[in-house]
Write the structure tokens for this entry.
Amino acid sequence: MKRLSIIILSLVMTATAIQAEPLLKSVLGFLKPWRVDVHLGYGIGGTAPIGMPATIRKLNKFSLTPNLMLGLDAHRQFDERWGFMTGIHFENKGMSIDATVKNYHMEITRGGQTLDGQFTGGVTTDVTAWMFTLPLQATFNVSNKVQFKLGPYFSYLTNRSFKGYAYNGYLRVGNPTGEKVELGSKEGERGDYDFSDHLRRFQWGIDLGVDWHVTKRFGAFADLSWGLSGIHQSDFHTVEQTLFPIYGTVGVSYRIR
Amino acid sequence: MKKTIFGLLALALPIMMTSCFKDEPLNAECDIEQVIFHSTEADKVFFNLSDTLQHVLYTDTLVKVNVRYNAPIETVTPEFKLTPGATIECIDGDVKKGKATYVVTSEDGNWHRRYVVSLVPTMVTVADTMKFDFEHYELDPTYHKFYVWHNLLPDGTLGNDWANGNGGFKISMSNAQPDEYPSVPITNGYDGSAVKLTTRDTGPFGVMVNKRIAAGNFFLGSFDVQNALLDAMKATHFGIPFAQKPAKLTGYYKYKPGATYIDLKGNAVAGKTDSGDIYAVFYRNHDAAGNPVTLYGDDVKTNSNIVALASVNPMQVTSEWTYFDIEFNYSKEIDPAVLENRGYSLTIVFSSSIDGAIFQGAVGSELCVDKVRLICTREE
């Protein structure tokens, strides 16, 4: 992979050196029909199982986290209606959630020791996932100001954290007939966990959105990105359900060309 | 247009998150939490009326109550407090005849637990010397992971009066072998088998809950795993009802402290050497209002119901079996009527780290104990 990139890079550099001017021209020619927008957005959403299991009883609290999105997107119109958009986004898909669970299966492994069982009580989870995202979207103009877009996205996480604790409840070790261990709310009385290392680096999903070009330069947008890869590595079973990131982003755009 | 779409988005997310809660699942637990014994002649059956309410530990499957000799146990009807939704069925015997076996089934029907409830007519022990030789032990019947001990009762059967913290250690170190637990038997004791108590590292889960060590402990009473994390001091229930006046405790021990004494945060404390602990406490097991009193980790040496204490102080560091002979120092008079009605409890405690209850000590500290004798005096 690395070797291949080096070869390509040296080929490009050689080509550039030999015929810089014609290349520049053809690049500019290629770029000419592309519009470029800067997007700044804020996301709200969650990392959740599809189909809430019956063992999750209640969401007690859902706090906003700094889910900022900064993106640079290029758009090319093919005909009056259809076009294509791609770009690079730097964004956070985080959440801070507090839920009540009943008889919820948990399995924690640390240093070769395993603690598993059925937990009833409160669970707090904080997720931070800063990532670079590459969207590939087909666009469709409904008017000359409003455009819908749909397509897959691919993300690479640069900063990942999945932490929390089980508190104010009890664990039945092994199964519902096992030892009952009470958990409190303070540190040392509750069960802290940190599964950050088990978050998947590469994620992908589907992005559906709308752009509204209010003026020539300024616009607004809304996106819904639906993760189709679970956020944890596939060999990770501590969390009973596969969790998918589902986030809505709203924001403003500025057209730079 | 924009407003509609933003509005839809804003609505859709919380709906997605909350609209899909399913019906609450039925309970999966099937425990007897309490047994309440009803009888029109409760005072003739039970030594103390408070005995009619028995709290059952979640790890216990045997509810054994000592009742008066010749008690009219046919008058007794048990009432069970179960985990919500669970049902109970008597599959063998009858409490009115002294012993019955029950099966409890969870609300969801998937889980079962079997319990034995027994009322055991008890004569006041007449032996002046009680012998504890620690010869009867086995792997715990549920998990076969750690050792439990039985004491020889006057009628020749085996009792469960000796408790230890192995059940708590199991939660933090699930992969430990039976011999790696804090309380283990050794076969080369002073005389036959002996008990070896070792202060152990509780591993990554211990660090997680700030309980980095587990001292080897061994005591008359019971250990309640339920509290091992939230309120560890309340996990050790010290004492069993005892109807004689203890005068002296003797036995043999060996002790060697571990290399590095660590504090609660796991930091080494320079210059501090660990010490073991051997003591016995005799106390009134009811308060003035008739409520049962149990001593826990935080008041076993200080509770105002204590009438006598005995302790090995100081303990020697010794690799040879060393004899100890300690007297009970009485701070209050004994009431013979209360004594006869099992109104006093006794605990004898051995620990490989004197501050083990607050999770401080040296990993590797080791206390071996054997051939313990409790000498009692007759009340005139």
User: Anything to note?
Assistant: Chain B has two domains: 24-122, 123-377.
